[in-house]
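Researcher: Can you fold this with flavin mononucleotide in place?
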Amino acid sequence: MKTAITKLFGIRHPIIQGGMHYVSFAQLAAAVSNAGGLGIIAALTQKTPADLAREIARCHDMTDRPFGVNITFLPTVTSPDYPGYIREIIQGGVKIVETAGRNPQQYLPLLKDAGIKVIHKCTSVRHALKAEAIGCDAVSVDGFECGGHPGEDDIPNMILLPRAADELKIPFVASGGMADARSLVASLALGAEGINMGTRFLATQEAPVHEKVKQAILAASELDTRLVMRTFRNTERVLNNPAVERVLEKEAELGKDLRFEDIFEEIAGVYPRVMQEGDVDAGAWSCGMVAGLIHDIPTCGELIARIMSQAEVLIRKRLTSMLEEEI
Ligand SMILES: Cc1cc2nc3c(=O)[nH]c(=O)nc-3n(C[C@H](O)[C@H](O)[C@H](O)COP(=O)(O)O)c2cc1C
């Protein structure tokens, strides 16, 4: 399948694996890229720019195909060494960057001068338009369904994607709630040029996380995610567990008086404990509503091949036959 996104990134299939903290290591990114999609390494999971340089080199060793690096601009007081991470991305010969969080404008000239294509992840049409205006090559439009940070507007993809299609000139991929061929074909119909998946790639053979995390996703239904940290306007969609329920109780109880210290235990430093040690109740960790559509743990190759072959059947048989049948 050829779309504006496959052409932009030089990939075979219009499927991107979104950057995920403590999940998007080189082995997952390489597996997705080797399967014809676009794998992405999460920069900030690497403690220092030098660690990121090693992770990029490891990914080059595992794939000859294009892969990207995610840089998440966090609303934190002490900023990570973003210039250092960007330096290593450029020196490591990475040609695609997924930015997320705050506006990446400050770093765009550096990336563009190095010939890097930038796809910015955003949760609203106004932010997507801003990304287009500052020179991003594409956007990843994250609907309310998504695992991670859905923003504060709460617009699901059925509305958000056609709204984006109506306004944007640059290509975009649909992100949030994507799991299978139906997601891909629907997204293309709504105006996207491909899909971005997080939670679905978490439940694959190559995702370098504890087996208990994958089983937790399989066990979850679409009813099992919750939104935390809305009080701080930093909403995160996470898998429900007792720690998440404690956060929600504190948010309800303290309202505007809630301070980060009040939920520190349930939020800070949780990812390595969940993803590496398999303590899935350690605190709040991102997971999309799409968990309700995930019932197996395929390899990335099997997953992507399945999506592409079933998408072809959907388009050629189901949709085309609807046009051909006379009543
Ligand atoms: C466990 C997990 C960790 C994530 N970490 C990040 C991150 O560090 N930076 C980022 O931009 N997005 C992050 N995301 C969001 C994903 O890249 C992607 O946009 C999102 O998962 C799409 O929604 P879906 O889960 O419904 O597919 C994370 C998602 C998950 C599930």
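Model: Folded with flavin mononucleotide in place. The mean pLDDT is 97.
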